[in-house]
Predict the 3D structure of the following.
Amino acid sequence: MLPLLLMLSIFMLFRGHNLPGGGFIGGLLASSAIILQMVAFGPKVARRILPVNYLILAAFGVFFGALWGLPALFAGLPYMQAFWLPEPIPGVGKIGTPVLFDIGVYFTVIGVTTKIALLLVEEPILFPFPEMKSVPVDHQEEVA
Amino acid sequence: MIILLAIAIGSLFGGATYLILRRSVVKLILGLIMLSHGVNLLIFTMGDGVRRGGPPLVDASGQPPAGSADPLVQALILTAIVISFGFTAFVLALAYRSNQAAGSDDLDDLSTTDRL
Amino acid sequence: MTFHLFIPIVSPLIGAALAVLLHRQWVVVRALTLISVLINLGYGLWLMSVVPQSGPLVAQASGWLAPFGISLVADGMSALMVMLAALLMLTTVVYSFYSVDREREAHFYYPLLLLLLLGVSGAFLTGDLFNLYVWFEVLLVASFGLITLGGSREQLEGGLKYVVLNLLGSTAFLFGCGLMYGFAGTLNMAHIAERMATLADPGLQTVLAGVFLFAFGSKAAIVPLFFWLPSSYHTPPVAVTAIFSGLMTKVGVYSLYRVFGLLLQNELAIYAPWITLIAGLTMVIGVLGAVAQMNVRRILSFHIISQIGYSVMGLGLASAAGLAAGLVFTAHVMIVKMALFFIGGAAEQINGTGDLKKMGGLARREPLLALFWFLGILSLAGIPPLSGFIGKLILLQVGVSQQAYLITAVAAGTSILTFFSMLKIWNEVFWKKSYEDVNRLPRVRFGLLAPGAALVILSVALGLVAGPLVEYNTIAGQQLFDRAAYITAVCGADGCEAVYRAAVK
């Protein structure tokens, strides 16, 4: 199921602009593929599918998505005003900033949903440091 | 249709209120989830498709295109569902951790921050 | 069309994403945080210098036309709030550099602060009701993270109450959004304001106003919806409590002003007596709640509630002058309240506890800290020539001129109680003799003193040079109350309905 779902997710990602689909749906499909593996074989196997830090992946997605709104800002147009390449690329479709933005959304959704699922399954100690100590004010020189 | 939806929303709200007023943290969270479902359903009924029988879109002839519904309420509900999904995950993790820290699921035992 | 109105939203967003990506280099993270906040501050100052003359500035996201896409609108109140949010965030970031432990920094403390700034700036700038809801959720997510980061038992317990009660408020807001869409058929604020004038269903409008009063009231911590605040605000680190006190409840006040000033202006007349009643109760109950407390930050938390009463009183006066006076007071209290949290928090960190009984003797040990605290409480109580005097004076003037004598008397009486309650902290923390040897306590470090001191000095300056602030807020209050100008700025001279009809045909 895994390759099939991943392929479907990428298909969904690229058909999304004018048809049902898009980055969010694609990302959910991809992460559900990973989560299915986790349900079937446990979190260790699922981690090996995409050996990245999912939180970093999500942050990268946000950054990547926000980045492609910027060209419009520099061109003196409202943020996220779309730019399109004039000719569609065969097999992929029309490419423009909304597609790139969707790719950012795709990564964010994969990162966030998989991270949540992994956290709930693996049960690490979410806050690894125990009690808030009242910090003696003088002992923080290295921070300054 | 609208009557059925109204009954469904009302029972979701009623059940949610009942659960939120319980002392158990888990039931409280279940109540919050139910409440958000109730509100989502309420937004759904606010779409023109349910209330007036047609979407606000019109084609060239001035008639609503066949087989289409108000897209905005769906977008609103999708956004609301995503947000409540994230919050639910967060609140569940928080309840789990506070259960570990306080050793109790009873809200009456979670009152150390309110004492003088 | 002001295309660069997106800067205060884009800069913290990209800053936060980059800060998470580069979270291993803490120098880079701090620099990114500082740069994003400074960009917002500069842009906010520029907005404040432009908006009084030009009227509301508008940008349409992705270039979609006004009633269909999401508009961003910066009028006088938005510009002031964007600037203040960035300024207060700047002091918080500086304070955090010196007071937040490394584990928190490693667990995305600064990205969460930026996310909070993102949500707050977005909420101040948006001109779309549902978008306001989304920004509320963004800032709530960030605040949830900040308040529970650390995971001690107190934080988790306080955090749970904070989270649950705020989620209830958000759900009520979403409920209101849904009803509003069903009622007005649009979510663009300008378009709603326009249709509100023509749609005739007074009953439903009153219900809508009630729902929004509940939703934003629970965010703003008015009586009887304030219980989440004092049970959670003293649990996280001082810097987090301070920025919450400056921003979180004020976003609720801002939304109340926006919704009742623009969307539901007709309802404001009906609700004004009730809002005034709530304002009076909030003032008195907040300050009385503080009397019983024996912890620095809990006393200050109850005072937040009491001060919210004054801001809501500005709304209850139901006029442009009243809203302007409320804005002056809100700006003042954001600054002074945070200063007091910073200074009280520094005292707490020196003593290692916030319990008044165990503190003492700091006036001799840290005279500067004591001096700024004293100036701060004078300002909060409203002693001339500090900014609190101006804020309260204008509110009371408007109250008297509108024959609202009772609420005016309550407001004046509450300031005396406020001063009394603040003197308690002064006596216990700074004035009385310490039971322990004061000289063994660590000295306060410059980074812990400077943010609070800077804000107190700003308050003194605002008190001495009050003219520009009052003029600015008078214009902001008028802009807020002027529906026609807002609609023209967003949708053009013909109004949103004309654009809507043209597009549907």
